[in-house]
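My current task is to audit a protein record that another person submitted. I have pasted the whole thing underneath without changing anything:
***
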Amino acid sequence: MKNNVFKGSILIALGAASYGMLATFVKMAYREGFSTAEVTLSQYMLGVAGLFILTLLRKREPAPATKSTGIKGVFKLIIAGTSLGLTSAFYYFSVQYVPVSVAIVLLMQTVWMGVIVETILHKKSPGLSKIISIVIILTGTVLATHLHSQSVRINWTGFGWGLMAALCYTATMYSSKNIELHAPPLKRSLYMILGGLIVIILIFHSSLNHEFSCGIFLRWGLLLSLFGTILPPLLFTRGMPLTGMGLGAIISSIEIPVSVLMANLLLKEPVSFLQWAGVILILLAVVLMNIGTNKKHQLP
C-alpha cells in the first residue's frame, strides 16, 4: 500500500513539474520572436496528434460493464476542453506582460475560485479550514505579486489575463471531476485537448497565414505538447487513484515552486524573499484545504 502511494506521489509530482515548466518555455519562445498564436497552436496540434497516436496504440482491454461514451458524451468533453484551450491562451498572454513567477501565482487563484464554484453550484458552505485557506492564499498572492509594494509598477494587463486564465482553469478542473468520468482517461484527455484546439483555432484563425512560422513545431511545439498536453494527463490519471484526491492535490501544488525556479534559472527572473514567502503561504493553504480529504474518500 505504501509503495503504491509513493509511486502515485512520484507520478503526480512529475506531472505537476511538467506543467510548471511551460511558462518558462513559452517565454523563451517569445524571446526568439514566436507569437502566442504560434506557441499555442503548435502545442495543441501536436498534443492532439500525440494523444490520438497513443489512443490507437493503447492495449485493447475488455470493455468494463459501464456506460459507454456516446456522441453526446464526446461532445460534452470537447465543450469542456474549450476552457482548457482558453486557459493556455490567457496564461500565455499573461506571461507576455508579467514575470513567470507572478503569472503562476495568478493562475493558482483557481484554488479559491474552485471553492466559490462549489459553494454556488452545490449550495455547500465552505468549512472554516477552507475560509482560512482562502485568506492565506490571498495574503500570499499580495506578497508574491508585489501588490503590497508601492515601488513596483504593476502591469494590470498581465494581471487581467492571469486572472482570466485562473477562471478558465477553474472551469477545466470542475469539468475534469464531473464530466464523463467512466470514459478511459486517455480518450477523455484526447477529446478535451481537441476542444482546446478548436477554440484556439477560432481565436487565432487570422494568424494561420503566410506570417505563421512552421518552425515553431520543431523548435518549441514538441516540447510544449509533451510537457503541456501529453505527459501531465497520463501521469495524473495514473497517480491520482494511488494517492487519493487530497494528497494528490497537495503534491500537484509543486507546480508553483517549479515554475518560479525554472524562470529564475533559465530566464534569470529575480525572485525576492517576500515572493518566496508568498509562494510558501499559498502552498500551506493548499495543504490546509486538502488535509483530511483522503480520509473522507477512503473506502471502508
